Amino acid sequence: MKILVTGSNGFVGRNLVCNLKNIVDGKDRTRNNLSISEIYCYDIKSKTEDLEKFCQCCDFVFNLAGVNRPKDISEFQKGNLGFSYKLLNTLKKCNNKCPVMLASSIQASLMGRFANSLYGKSKLATEELFFDYAKETGAKVFVYRLPNLFGKWSRPNYNSAVATFCNAVANDLEYTINDRSTELDLVYIDDLVSELLDALEGNEHRCNYVEDGDSSSIIPKEEKKGKYCFVPISYHKTLGEIVDVLEKFKTMPDSLFIPEIPSGSFDKKLYSTYLSYLPPKKIIYSFNSNVDNRGSFTELFHTLNCGQISVNVARPGVTRGEHWHNSKWEIFIVVSGHGLIQERKIGIDPDTNKPYPIIEFEVTGERLNAIRMLPGYTHNIINLSKTDDLVTVMWANELFEVDRPDTFYEQVVLDNTAKLTSV
């Protein structure tokens, strides 16, 4: 299959082309039904003869070319309707009836706040051109009325409010929100690309639109034989909600709090977008470590509901820990060095009238093991090396609270404590 992508250097085009290349190169194993041999990229700097050459042999066309921020309003018709007319006429000239996709806009509804949109009028005229083309040639067309898009590589201060705010927050730039309650219908770029690949496989999502005079009610109603196509995953957010979440993302290097990003959530996709706008100096950030003659302890990440991750460095011969917790539990993973972890249940064993036996685990960075520190067990970690540091990644199920540490000093090894060694 040979694919033509017009507007290939635009926001959607770049993301689509990169994912098509992954399929060509065999890197994307989720699209085993697609066999793509060529990707033809056409953009504003391409030559007319290239379009004719591509139209002669392409098997599918993604028409992503368009103008949405022209210097002169006449460019709306030329860049949107004019180019589509040129594309479809070239396909007809080449007698190529392959499927064609059109990236239209919800502004083409001309409803609500879009009622006088010149951009919307140019897109509506382009839609009708495509539908007429389908009737005339019998070619299959896929017309997507896209809402606001967001994701990596979107151009700030151009056609995406999300990109503009992500760029401003990430780069400490001033920004203005005229109305925090302004609502946006949003589609994430990866969800759009996934839908376009579905269309390429013949599994597009089709719909008609419900329009009652209010732009907020321009919603797709899924129908198998619908006139339009749509991306089934979308989000409805206010500008205020978006900016508030972005400002929380910004504090992460200081607070160490990993954002709550459930699978498929808007916040997860917004965080990926935000990260793509970070300047080089903010890609790296440092930690505050507690350092003494025993080594160091550094908190790496905090979470709201799943505790924290830290790294502990013990100098040669040093013992760290020697404490227990009522409810807190931890996992130790030695990633470098050679050490011994000891645990002992607090109190006296009623069967022997002696302290409970010590459980020992010899650990090394050459063989990674996760050792659980049990509630009610005093525990330690000993660096057995005389020359090398012992480095341990530690997870605790809750954040450390200075006022309620749930941490109580008690040595693991007592003079009359029996030992039970575990490998």
Would you mind describing this structure in some detail?
This protein is α+β, with helices and mostly antiparallel strands. It is 27% helix and 30% strand. It is built from ten helices and 25 strands. The strands form six sheets. Strands 12-13-14-23-16-21 form a six-stranded antiparallel beta sheet, with no helix packed on it. A six-stranded mixed beta sheet has the order 24-15-22-17-20-25, with no helix packed on it. It has a five-stranded parallel beta sheet with strand order 2-1-3-4-5, sandwiched between helices. The model has no long low-confidence stretch (mean pLDDT 91).
SSE diagram, text form:
Blueprint: E1 2-6, H1 11-24, E2 38-42, H2 48-57, E3 60-63, H3 74-93, E4 100-105, H4 118-137, E5 141-146, E6 148-150, H5 161-170, E7 183-188, H6 189-200, E8 206-210, E9 219-222, E10 228-229, E11 235-238, H7 239-250, H8 252-255, H9 266-275, H10 280-283, E12 289-292, E13 295-302, E14 308-314, E15 319-324, E16 330-336, E17 338-345, E18 348-349, E19 354-355, E20 358-364, E21 370-373, E22 377-383, E23 390-396, E24 408-409, E25 419-422
Parallel strand pairs: 1-2, 1-3, 3-4, 4-5, 6-7, 20-25
Antiparallel strand pairs: 7-11, 8-9, 8-10, 12-13, 13-14, 14-23, 15-22, 15-24, 16-21, 16-23, 17-20, 17-22, 18-19
